[in-house]
Amino acid sequence: MDDIDAKIRDALPETDAEVFDELSDEQSLCQMVIDSFRTRHRWMVAIMFFWIAAYFIVAIFSAVRFFQAETTRVQIAWAVAFMFCVTAISMMKAWYWMELNKNAVTRRIKRLELQIARLAQRIKD
């Protein structure tokens, strides 16, 4: 992929090459997480973070109580609670990773739109 980027950069005029370099920077994971709080669905992301924390606390509590249980029946109940929490956390994290991926794809499409608009303007002039 670096070869393609280098060929595109060589084909562009110097002013467009600078813009291409600015737009081609990939975001780190921390930047992607911060940007997820700037989207239209930021309230859903905040709620999801809250519920992940809540389920994590309940999962830890369930695990501790599992080992403190006296009977097998109570151990099974705490194990079911723990597994439910872990499953819920896993599903929410999978949703969040898909949200991050969607934001990255949208960013790349907007970058492509900008490049097409610049090309159309250059052809028009």
Please, could you describe this protein's structure?
It is rod-shaped, with a radius of gyration of 24 Å. The model has no long low-confidence stretch (mean pLDDT 85). The chain starts with a helix and ends with a helix. It is built from five helices and no strands. The longest helix has 53 residues, at 72-124. The chain is mainly α and 125 residues long. The protein has helices spanning 2-11, 14-23, 29-36, 42-68, 72-124. Helices cover 86% and strands 0% of the residues. The chain has a domain at 38-124.
Brief summary of the model shown:
With 125 residues, the chain is an all-alpha fold.
Give the helices and strands, then pairings.
Blueprint: H1 2-11, H2 14-23, H3 29-36, H4 42-68, H5 72-124
Helix pairs in contact: 1-2, 4-5
Helix content: over 70%
Q: What summary fits the major beta sheet?
A: none
Determine the N-to-C terminus distance: 31 Å
**What pattern of helices and strands is seen along the backbone?**
HHHHH
Unreliable spans are none
E-strand count: 0
Tally of separate helices? 5
CA radius of gyration is 24 Å
Q: Structural class given helices, strands, pairing? A: mainly alpha
Which geometry do the CA atoms define?
Answer: rod-shaped
> Mean of the pLDDT scores?
85
Could you tell me the strand content as a percent range?
under 5%
